[in-house]
Amino acid sequence: MIEIDELSLIKLVEEIKPKLVLVVCPSGIRLECIKIISNFSKKYGFNAIFLGESCYGICDLAESEASFLQVDLVLHIGHNSTLRRAGKMTYFIEAYDNISLIPVVEKALPLIKEFKNIGLCTIGPHLKRLDEVQNYLQKQGFSVYVGDSIPPLRKGQIFGCNYSTCKMIEQFVDVFLFIGSSRFHAIGLYNLLGKPVLVLDPHTKEIFPIEKDALKVQKHLLFNFYKAIDAKNIGVVIGLKEGQYNIPAALELYKELNGLGKNVYLIAMKEISNEKLNEFQNIDAFIETACPRISEDFFDKPVLSLQYGYKLIEYLKGQKI
Ligand code: SF4
């Protein structure tokens, strides 16, 4: 069950007094958002438009849709962070999953008893309950580390592209417990720090080490990297989602790779999908500058992240990588 930060919502609506509001949220909580905001809009006298597009992160703003629709306000719900607003019209409203985390942590005790120092991390919806987990584990005799807030991350929070809260406690930790249902966060953490990561899913109560999945992803990324070395024609994809837009990096890749004898094409795309990339039949490999997580997905042609794009340039220049 999801709880929206209604107090902030009321304050915001009373302050802005919007007539037309665009509501943006991840698909997992869309139904709840529709229910809550529909009631809310009647009470506060505004019309709500629910954006029917994907929304994967705090980077996934809808400012251009908002100005096209001429709304007075964008409510971006469910991507919690230290940020209150972004762009001209977007205000973030936090949403929390009220499921208790203790049952799955209790179930994990036999699996973590060999470790002394535990690092804890989670994603936005479970942040409010992370302190409870820390206290619980401390009472069981563990030393528990939770990385302080580094904006835009809150204490103990990770994004798929930002693990700074874990990096700061890495040296003290024997194992990380990632509390959440999304494998890719845990995979990213393992692949960045190389420490054991256990996933504790509070909904399914599943507990498993992420190592196998993470190594599979590493293999996949390397395989694509080596395939991209031989690519003659490379597409550099510029993400059109506002928070993922990185044209300076795309132009840098364009210039460098051209200089290294590749035929490079700049491509702009909002949602990067296999079908859309396949339309560029002349391209042998892509580098996407939007979101580092995308290249972990499976595409027909190699798709590298920006980080691997830079590695490719170093490799082609004969530098050690
Ligand atoms: S760039 Fe990707 S990983 Fe980072 S917040 Fe956005 S969707 Fe998540």
Secondary structure: elements and pairs:
Layout: E1 2-4, H1 6-16, E2 20-24, H2 30-44, E3 47-50, H3 63-69, E4 73-77, E5 85-86, E6 90-93, E7 95-97, H4 102-112, E8 117-122, H5 130-139, E9 143-146, H6 164-167, E10 175-179, H7 183-193, E11 197-200, E12 207-209, H8 211-229, E13 233-239, H9 247-259, E14 263-269, H10 274-278, E15 285-288, E16 303-304, H11 306-316
Parallel strand pairs: 2-3, 2-4, 4-6, 8-9, 8-10, 10-11, 13-14, 13-15, 15-16
Antiparallel strand pairs: 1-7, 5-6, 11-12
This protein binds iron/sulfur cluster.
What does this structure look like?
The chain has 321 residues and is an alpha/beta fold. It has helices spanning 6-16, 30-44, 63-69, 102-112, 130-139, 164-167, 183-193, 211-229, 247-259, 274-278, 306-316; strands at residues 2-4, 20-24, 47-50, 73-77, 85-86, 90-93, 95-97, 117-122, 143-146, 175-179, 197-200, 207-209, 233-239, 263-269, 285-288, 303-304. It has 3 domains: 2-96, Diphthamide synthesis DPH1/DPH2 domain 1 (Rossmann fold); 102-209, Diphthamide synthesis DPH1/DPH2 domain 2 (Rossmann fold, 3-Layer(aba) Sandwich); 218-316, Rossmann fold. It has a 5-stranded mixed sheet, sandwiched between helices. A 5-stranded mixed sheet has the order 9-8-10-11-12, sandwiched between helices. Strands 14-13-15-16 form a 4-stranded parallel sheet. The protein starts with a strand and ends in a 5-residue tail after the last helix. Residues 56-59, 159-161, 244, 291, 293 line the site of iron/sulfur cluster (SF4).
